[in-house]
Structures are given as structure tokens and as C-alpha cells.
Amino acid sequence: MSLNKDMVQRWRSEAPQALLLGFGYFVAALLAVRYTRLNGGVALLWIATPLLAVDLRYRPKRSWVLRMAACAIASAAATSLQGLGASVAVPLAITNIFEGTAIAWLMRRFEPVPTHLTSVRELCILVIVAGLVVPALTAAPAGVLAHFAAGVPIRPNIFSWFCAHALGTLTVMPIVKLAIGGDILGWARKVDRREALEAAALTALMVAVTGLAFATRFPLLYVPFVPLMLLVFRLGRLGAAISLLVLTAVGTVCTAEGLGPITPPGTEIGTKLQLFQLYLVVATLIALPAATELKRRKLLFSDVQEGAALHKIIADRSGEIIMAVDADGTIRFASPSLAEIAGYTPASVTGRFARDIVAKEDVDSITYAHKNAMADPDATVMFEFRARKASGALAWFESHARAICNESGAATGTVNVVREVSRRKARELTLARAASTDPLTGLPNRRVFAAAYDEVTTDLKDAGSQSYVALFDLDHFKQINDRFGHLAGDEILQAFADILRANVRSNDTVARLGGEEFGVLFCGVNLEKAQEACERVRAQLAAAIVEAPSGEEVRTTVSVGLAAAGATTTLENALQAAMPRFIEPRTGAETGSQSRLERTAARARECG
């Protein structure tokens, strides 16, 4: 009883939406049979199926029955009033509803999470399901019903049904998907006045050019492709959907009225409409793949930009830009180092918005990072951006932001430590092209470490600064794998990699050298600083807890050694200089690891 009551209540709440869908389906079906049903057969263009298919695609299956019933009644009514008649209204309604339902079910089956035509895969699924498989399944029954009701030939009507339903669905379904999926409303909310006027102007141009092409006998069929591609490039998937809808609506009405240059004068209207369908196929195959590929490339570019961000906290800095930024983005303080690094005096930027000196393309990303830092006062947020120096040169910068809180604990702004990383960004691009990263930890591999060592030691010849190589080896790693399994070992490696990232500077190089061995190249530091960083890594790993797949807690320690990087010292020699500590018994004691670090540091001091 309670179940029936819940069902009745749900149907009552969904009834208005189902009635609205049924009304839309009725109008679309009535227009199709009114204008494109010729020679007593089936309609030559069908645009009702996409309404049902897309609506079911985004609804839970428990809501399907009411919507299917509303559209079935609408289909039967349209067939009785303007179609093949009441004698086949019910079986044709069943065929139409099966078509829309099958498309929705198959799309959910092969693409459970809709991406709103942002991937080539979804577009291919749409073409195969809605443009080939389902229309082919419903075409034969429809041809037989048309023959039974009107005595028309079966084969031509099977072909006409297939073309009409396949092409109509592919043409109308994208804009219905964008509307029901929220893309159109989302675009409308965020679009500014200029973009809205541009979209309206391009749409008007598309209507005007299409009307001109189909209202005359001049060979202007491909002229509408110009505003079509303008809409695609300026509005993406929405532009493709709008242009195809305009092309379908204007072209269908004009062709049905005998206008347009589709065929020479005297050609039957049915033949003209079929050739117009072929024309729409060409337009669809131009617009939809182009719009989908543009969206895919935009998303791919965004992913690459995000993947290039390196999250690390830099400690003990000197000579970096220090900035205090209010909640609204106003710069309240800038350190004197700003003049040396970027060419601006602190007074020239104080009181200005930070976005004024940031590259336009990165304003949104720094605003997002600024808000994130204030939202979590206990976290340090790292982000990278481009800005112009006083000289006009565009450079990359890295900022570490932390919230400034008042006495009540509320964030009032952020303090930022900023450094230029243009050289590192250039090096990252080279390394990314070489794909030289360890797949498990995401750290650079031994080849990258060797290249960085060669670069640093070359610079040592000119600068005379100090650099050190640290070699880390996880203690008892084989026993961890044997006892807890290799998945636990992988978790340990990843956790240690995160610890290393968090304790090195942006111009240092950290890498996985192989197995449980990791290396860090400290550039331009003295031995004490390098030793302090190694000790932080050692202490943090000793305090870390990794949960094994079995639920057990896994702890481990690390042995570390230091060796000086010299202009005449190869990487292998430097690593070998740090290696002798591993001969000593490792009993898992933190004190033992610390003493080994002190002894290898002493050796590094003697060598350096």
C-alpha cells in the first residue's frame, strides 16, 4: 500500500513535465508529417525522437514510463490527424517510442556518464546508435505499416524512414542534449554582453544566409557553411547545434515548398527532400566533429596546464618577493626584492590589484588560488602564473600563498612568497617532451637526474657555488614487500616521494633512481642547509603511517647520505661517495639513520 502511494505521489509530481514533453513531441511530429510526408508514405524528416531520447537519457529509469506514455499518445494523435491514419496510429506509436527508448538505453549503456558531446567517443556512439543501429531496427516495421495503411511500396518507405529518423535525430539531438544537460543555461549565465551580441549576430547571419541560399535558384548551397563554421569556432558545440537547427528548419520548409537550388526545376518534392537530407548529412559531419574536437582540445590543454603545476612548499628562502594581498586582491605590501626580480618598485604596485600585472590568461587561476588559500588557513597553496616585468618581458612566476587571519581567526588576505621560475618552466617543457618520469611516483627518473647534475656541475665552473647530492635508501623495503605485499610497498614509495617534494626547493631536482633509491640534487646551498633538508625528510618519513591493503599500519625509515657535486666529479662518483653508509647494519633505529647522515655529511664536508 505504501509502495503504491509513493508511486502515485511520484507520478503526480512528474506529470507536468511528462505532459510538457508529450506536447513538444506532438508539435514536432505534427510538423514533420505535415510538411515532409509526401506521396502518402512516411515523413521524410523526423525530429520528434530526439526529444524523448534525450529526456530519458537524463532521467532515472523509474520516471520513464510516464514520459513514454505521454509521447506515445502524442505520436498516435499526430499520425491520426496528419499521418497514415488511425488504423496504424498505435503500432507506429509503439515503433516511435521504442526508437527513442532504445537510443536512450544504449547511450546510457555505452556512456554511463554523459559528457555533453565533449569527446569524440561520445560523438561516435551517438552516430552509431542514433544514426545507424536504432533507425535500422525500426525502418522495416514502419515500411510494412505504411504499405498496409496507404498501399505505398515497402522498400522506398523503409529507406525514407531510415534516412528521416537517422538524420533528424543526429541534427536535432545535439541542441536538445545541450539544453537538457544545462549547457545552454550555463552559457547564458556566464556570457557577457559582447559575447551575447556576437552570438545573436552570428545566428542572424546564419538565418539570413540560409534563407538566401534556399530561396533562390542560384547555386549557393555551400554558402551557409561559412556562417556555420563561424558559429562552430566562436560558440563551439552550441554554435554547431544552432547552425544545424537553422539549416534544418529553413532548408526543410523551403525545399518542401519547392524552393531552393537542391535540384533542377521539375524535380519531385520527395526527391528534393531526400537530396536535402544528404546535404544535411554533409553539414552534420562537418559541424559536429569540428565542434567536438575543438572542445576536446580545450579540455586537453586545460589538463596539460594543471598537470604542469608542481605542488611544493619552499622553506628558508632568501631574495624572493614577499607580497601581502587583501581579500579583494589589492596588494598591500611588496618587498624590495620586487625591484631586482621584476623591475617594479614596491611603491608602484602597492594599492593596485594583483591581476593588473598578471597575464590576462592567468587571472582566473590566480583568483581561484587566492580564494582557496583563504578558505583553508592551515594550508599553503602553490600556483604558477605569467606576469610582465617592468621591461615588458613575459615571465613565469611561482607563488606560495598562505592566509592572513585576524584575531577572530577569519582570513583577511594572503601572504605570498613569489619567485621567478622561467628557466625551470623551460626545462619542464623539455623534460615533458622526453617523458622522463617514473610512472609510480611521478618523480623524474635517473636520466633526468643525470641531466640536471650535468647542468649544475657545468654552472659550478662559472659560479663557484656549492651543490650536493643526497642519496636516500628506504630501510627494510624488501621485508615490507614480503610481509605486507607489493601494493603496500608502492604506497610507501609514493608517500616518500610526496615527502621529498615537500622538502625541496623549486630549483632542486628530486628523482627516483631505481627500486627504493631516491636522489636529491641540492643546487646552490651550503652543506648545513642540505643536511637540514635531509633530516626533515628522514624525520617526516619516520613519523609517517601508511595503511596496507590488509588494514595494517606500516612504518619505515630511510638511510641518507650526502656527497659534494663537483665540476670534475661524475654523477656515478658522487653517488658512490654517498653509498658506503649502506654497508653498516640498519636496525631500523632513527638514531642510527641520523648518525649515518652525520658521518656521510662529514665525508661530504671533507670532499667539498
UniProtKB/TrEMBL annotation:
Primary location class: membrane
PAS domain location: 322-377
Membrane topology: Multi-pass membrane protein
Listed transmembrane segments: 18-35, 65-82, 88-107, 123-146, 158-176, 196-214, 243-262, 274-292
Designated name of the protein: Diguanylate cyclase (GGDEF)-like protein/PAS domain S-box-containing protein
Chain intervals with Basic and acidic residues compositional bias: 596-608
InterPro entries registered for this protein in UniProt: Biofilm_reg_signaling, GGDEF_dom, MASE1, Nucleotide_cyclase, PAS, PAS-assoc_C, PAS-like_dom_sf, PAS_4
Domain GGDEF: 465-601
Organism: Sphingomonas abaci
Upper classification of the organism: Bacteria, Pseudomonadati, Pseudomonadota, Alphaproteobacteria, Sphingomonadales
One annotated Gene Ontology cellular component of this protein: plasma membrane
Record bears the keyword Transmembrane: yes
UniProt xrefs under NCBIfam families: GGDEF, sensory_box
Repressor as UniProt keyword: no
Cellular location(s): Cell membrane
Assigned keywords, A-Z: Cell membrane, Membrane, Transmembrane, Transmembrane helix
Domain named PAC: residues: 381-433
Region entry Disordered, spans: 586-608
